[in-house]
């Protein structure tokens, strides 16, 4: 990944590349940003930039012998460490990130904005708890103490040091007294879960979340999603570009139409219509169902905010604002809160062993009762 492959973040990319240019690259740093804010892509681009022997305009060249490898994540002097679970027949304590490198490279080339949930699904982790274990820490020590292979530098990119637990203390010496030309880049999402001993020894670089308009533009450019739809998804994603990609690529239905249909069906409470609507939801996969309920929740939260404050500066698209405007005659803030509660409960139920068909049927009747009340 090159810096130019990362959408937006121009100031941050310039600032980070500059630390390399002026010889002030910290030996150990933490790129800290919420899921989907671009921490991992930034670390990958930085690793390539460090190795590139033909840096131009604050980015790696993409052509030199180092770039050819680093951009495929196969550079022998760029090491990766990330949370994993047991691999195949190996015992967990013998398993390390290296066992998952093939999948790691593949998922990075597909979506480097991924979150831990995507990664665990990708490696079929099931219910196993991921972590970065003792063997991994020992291997890191060995790798970084060895001579480098092709470059005069060595880089470790560790994704989610939150999963180190106390084993992280094994790395303290390495972080504190790094060998020459060794650079440690930790990519974290939650500062509270990083060992204090590590935190205090690393330079902290905060990665801001994406702005809605950046995400919307990204969806339009990369996935050819229509502008209004992209705005809707961007608002819903709340700064998480990974979530926006998932919603944008997963779902073909127009959620705002589905939501309106639901309210209309609820209002009429005709059993056949309710059944049809419930079927349209249960036919979707679980991710889509969850996205739809989250969409509804987002809509009603914004709706209530607008109603209580009279402020039109809400995260709703033009089409949604029009819908919200029409709705105010029949749905007041209390009713909207009631509906939002039902949607919130529905989000919790997706993925659990609950009969979602029965739940949705009952919820639709209940929402209908509430809407019809004067
Ligand atoms: Zn290069």
What does this structure look like?
This protein has 374 residues and is of the alpha/beta class. The chain folds into three domains: 3-206, 3-Layer(aba) Sandwich (Rossmann fold); 212-248; 251-372, Up-down Bundle (Zinc Finger, Delta Prime, domain 3), CATH 1.20.272. It has 17 helices and five strands. A five-stranded parallel beta sheet has the order 2-3-4-1-5, with helices on both faces. The longest helix has 24 residues, at 286-309. It is elongated. The relative contact order is 0.10. The site of zinc ion has 9 residues, from helix 3.
Q: Domain count, please report it.
A: 3
* Major sheet attributes: 5 strands, parallel
Give the SSE string. HEHHEHHHEHEHEHHHHHHHHH
Can you tell me the CATH class of the largest domain?
A: Alpha Beta
Task: Write the CATH fold name of the largest domain.
Answer: Rossmann fold
**Spatial arrangement of strands, main beta sheet:** 2-3-4-1-5
- The total of beta strands comes to 5
Enumerate the spans where pLDDT stays under 50 for 5 or more consecutive residues. none
CATH architecture label name of the largest domain: 3-Layer(aba) Sandwich
DSSP helical segment count: 17
What distance lies between the first and last C-alpha atoms, to the nearest angstrom?
58 Å
Question: What's the shape?
Answer: elongated
Q: What's the helical proportion of residues?
A: 40-55%
CATH superfamily of the largest domain: P-loop containing nucleotide triphosphate hydrolases
Structural class: alpha/beta
């Amino acid at each position: 990944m090159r810096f130019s492959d990362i959408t937006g973040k121009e100031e941050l990319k310039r600032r980070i590349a500059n630390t390399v240019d002026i010889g002030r690259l910290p030996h150990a740093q933490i790129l800290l940003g919420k899921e989907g804010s671009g921490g991992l892509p930034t670390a990958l681009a930085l690793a390539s930039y460090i190795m590139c022997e033909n840096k131009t305009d604050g980015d790696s060249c993409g052509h030199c012998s180092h770039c050819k490898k680093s951009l495929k994540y196969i550079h022998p002097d760029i090491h990766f460490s990330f949370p994993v679970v047991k691999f195949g027949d190996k015992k967990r304590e013998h398993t390390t990130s290296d066992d998952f490198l093939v999948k790691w490279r593949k998922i990075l080339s597909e979506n480097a904005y991924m979150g831990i949930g995507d990664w665990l699904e990708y490696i079929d982790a099931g219910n196993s708890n991921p972590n970065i274990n003792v063997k991994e820490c020992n291997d890191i020590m060995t790798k970084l103490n060895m001579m480098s292979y092709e470059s005069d530098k060595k880089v470790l990119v560790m994704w989610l040091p939150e999963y180190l637990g106390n084993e992280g203390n094994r790395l303290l010496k390495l972080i504190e007294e790094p060998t020459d030309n060794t650079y440690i880049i930790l990519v974290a999402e939650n500062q509270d879960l990083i060992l204090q001993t590590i935190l205090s020894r690393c330079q902290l670089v905060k990665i801001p979340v994406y702005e809605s308009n950046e995400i919307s533009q990204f969806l339009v450019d990369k996935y050819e999603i229509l502008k209004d739809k992209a705005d809707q998804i961007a608002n819903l994603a709340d700064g998480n570009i990974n979530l926006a990609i998932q919603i944008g690529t997963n779902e073909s239905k127009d959620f705002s139409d589905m939501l309106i249909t639901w309210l209309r069906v609820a209002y009429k409470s005709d059993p056949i219509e309710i059944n049809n609507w419930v079927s349209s939801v249960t036919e979707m996969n679980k991710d889509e169902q969850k996205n739809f309920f989250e969409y509804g929740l987002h809509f009603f939260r914004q709706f209530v905010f607008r109603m209580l404050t009279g402020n039109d500066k809400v995260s709703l698209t033009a089409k949604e604002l029009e819908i919200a405007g029409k709705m105010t005659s029949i749905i007041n803030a209390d009713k909207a809160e009631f509906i939002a509660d039902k949607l919130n409960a529905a989000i919790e139920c997706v993925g659990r062993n609950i009969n979602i068909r029965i739940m949705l049927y009952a919820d639709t009747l209940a929402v209908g009762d509430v809407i019809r009340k004067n």
